[in-house]
Design a protein that fits this description.
Elements (H helix, E strand, L loop, with lengths): L51 H12 L15 H22 L5 H11 L22 H4 L1 H24 L4 H15 L4 H12 L3 H7 L7 H17 L3 H8 L3 H9 L1 H12 L2 H5 L3 E5 L5 H8 L4 E6 L4 H10 L6 E5 L2 H6 L12 E4 L12 H11 L6 E3 L2 E9 L2 H5 L10 H11 L4 E3 L11 E7 L10 E8 L9 E3 L2 E10 L7 E4 L11 E5 L8 E3 L5 E10 L7 E13 L2 E14 L2
Parallel strand pairs: 1-2, 1-4, 2-3, 4-5
Antiparallel strand pairs: 6-8, 6-11, 7-13, 9-15, 10-14, 11-12, 11-13, 15-16, 16-17
Length: 588
């Protein structure tokens, strides 16, 4: 691996007041469930909404039912009580509509629901049944954080109205704050992925119920109390692994990965083209197997035994897929966290080691979601010494500079209108965190530089938090512009299947290659107030130190920081023109 420099003082760590549960634009859902309003979801032609706010507004307009304004919804000040109370209230409302939607309709249904909720409060004994969803995959339950924000906004608006009525004066500062809140709410859809972890823990499937409760404990008051207690513990003590594994229980993410032909075809070619040289009659471990596609490639390549491991309930479909394709005599699917399975000797190896570890562990910017350490645990514990190999076995991270003048200047003239205030607003959003987007090669203005290489057969856990130098120069293929701003730094990675004496296969997530579901990760400077500028004729370049490390609060998130300076070689040596520090995070 390339040399790295460690810094225990951590001068560029993310600010301590950032919440590991904060939303950002980097966690992208591949197949989002629509929102249904409280009063309509039972209808076969029920309208579907893209946002929670629209669904709630539909109830107010068409049924006279205001969930946010209802006294039944507790104050947003106590988030723990709000979360628990909101789950119970939403499920109670949905059950009422389910029971009475034939008898009542329109505003009459809304009025009856309002009457039903008068005096409502969460009761540990009476409301235990409402800790489980009435509507499967209920997006409202998956966005309780957003509901809390909307409730908070409603409360603030009420306070503002009361204040205005008292002194008959408007408050422009308050209006600005409300607009900022509305903008933030519109960006909260990414929280759906994280919130699914809560719902997955509450909506236990039948198999889990059979294993965790006896027939007696599943009936009567005791069973309800246990369910309520279990739900409360889940709500108040979430963990990052729950969010992570639960997100892989949804079909959309697997469809997205399989449809990524760059990714899937590279694995297929690397495995099948090395059938004789690497896989035939070998024992293979597939970590994070998902639908089992890589395991089936290995079986087709002649592997003697393939153990497919995944800790989400997609493993059920993987078993069926293996059986359906006639490889159940080769592929064994095992559910569990890899580290736990190894510690408990729960893998069907009978004392054997594995020859090949196949895994698609990569995340945004390579290390987002931090799956590689789990694979390395298996490597160190199970892989045959000397002859065994990770597959792929090499990973590289790259950096390059991007200029998006056209994107920024769009706001100067929108259908003949000057909308430049939107430019500053957009920049404010772009500079909050790292962003995952497809960046066009046409916007890349510097060379693409490799900054670090990982030998996956030998790298250590400590190597995954690293600090490396870099330098960037303007590209030679476009000399039409002499002076260019660098609006963002773009991070991407390449993956190599390059085991000695085998056919080498490689794929790239760089801007110059076919886009993948990993896209690229952008770290934006502030192009309105301060960003690097390179002058071609003067020979300017950007030098700096790039750092990536796991987030302290959430190890599946990553923090990135860049200490940079722009300068040129002068007669007396290096002449610095400008410098700065850039800090951005990808939050899980």
């Amino acid at each position: 691996m390339s040399s790295t420099r460690k810094n225990n003082d951590d001068p560029w760590s993310s600010s301590s007041d950032e919440d590991d549960d904060s939303d950002d634009e980097n966690v992208e859902l591949d197949a989002e469930t629509p929102f249904y309003s409280i009063c309509t979801y039972c209808n076969s032609d029920a309208p579907k909404f893209d946002t929670l706010a629209l669904a709630l507004e539909y109830d107010v307009t068409n049924y006279g039912f205001d969930l946010l304004g209802s006294g039944a919804l507790v104050s947003s000040n106590d988030e723990d009580d709000f979360f628990e109370g909101a789950i119970v209230l939403i499920n109670k409302c949905r059950q009422f509509v389910k029971d009475y939607q034939v008898k009542f309709s329109g505003t009459e249904l809304g009025q009856e629901l309002n009457n039903y909720l008068k005096g409502h409060k969460v009761d540990d004994d009476g409301d235990a049944q409402y800790y489980k969803p009435v509507l499967d995959d209920d997006s409202m339950l998956m966005c309780i954080d957003e509901l809390c924000e909307l409730k908070r906004q409603t409360e603030q608006e009420s306070q503002a109205d009361a204040s205005a009525a008292g002194n008959n004066k408007s408050d422009p500062e308050s209006d600005d704050k409300m607009e900022q809140l509305r903008a933030k709410i519109s960006m909260l859809e990414e929280q759906l992925s994280r919130a699914k972890g809560y719902i997955a823990a509450l909506a236990k499937d039948d198999d889990d119920d059979d294993n965790s409760m006896s027939d007696d404990s599943r009936s009567g008051d005791d069973g309800d109390k246990k369910l309520a207690s279990s739900a409360k513990q889940t709500i108040k003590k979430p963990d990052n692994d729950t969010y992570y594994f639960s997100s892989y229980s949804h079909t959309g993410i697997h469809e997205t990965m399989l449809r990524d032909t760059v990714r899937t075809a590279a694995y297929e070619e690397a495995i099948l083209s090395n059938a004789d040289s690497l896989f035939r009659d070998k024992v293979v471990l597939d970590i994070g197997c998902g639908t089992g596609v890589l395991s089936l490639f290995c079986a087709k390549a002649g592997a003697k035994q393939v153990i497919a491991v995944d800790n989400s309930d997609i493993i059920k479909q993987a078993r069926e897929i293996v059986e359906l394709n006639g490889y159940s005599h080769v592929v064994t699917c095992v559910r569990g966290k890899c580290e736990d399975l190894i510690a408990n000797n729960a893998l069907p190896l009978n004392g054997k080691t594995v020859d090949i570890i196949v895994s698609e562990w990569m995340g945004y910017a390579l290390f987002f979601e931090t799956m590689l350490p789990s694979v390395m645990v298996a490597r160190d514990a199970l892989m045959t010494p000397e002859t065994g190999s990770m597959f792929p076995n090499v990973a590289k991270i790259f950096i390059e500079g991007c200029n998006e003048t056209e994107r920024l200047d769009y706001w100067n003239d929108v259908h003949g209108l000057n909308m430049t205030p939107m430019k500053e607003r957009m920049v404010s959003e772009l500079t909050q965190d790292a962003h995952v987007e497809i960046v066009s090669d046409e916007n890349i203005v510097t060379d693409r530089k490799e900054i670090i290489t990982f030998d996956l057969n030998t790298c250590k856990d400590a190597d995954l938090d690293f600090e490396v130098p870099f330098d960037l120069h303007l590209r030679d293929d476009d000399k039409s512009r002499n002076e260019l701003q660098i609006h963002s730094l773009v991070i991407s990675f390449d993956i190599d299947f390059a085991v000695p004496n085998t056919k080498s296969v490689q794929f790239s997530t760089g801007c110059q290659s076919t886009p993948t579901h990993w896209k690229q990760t952008q770290l934006w400077f502030d192009p309105v107030h301060n960003c690097p500028v390179l002058n071609r004729e003067a020979g300017d370049s950007m030098k700096g130190v790039f750092r990536m490390k796991r987030n302290v609060k959430n190890h599946r998130a990553i923090d990135m920081s860049v200490v940079w300076e722009v300068g040129r070689e002068a007669g007396s040596g290096w002449e610095r023109i400008s410098d700065g520090v850039l800090k951005r995070s990808l939050i899980a």
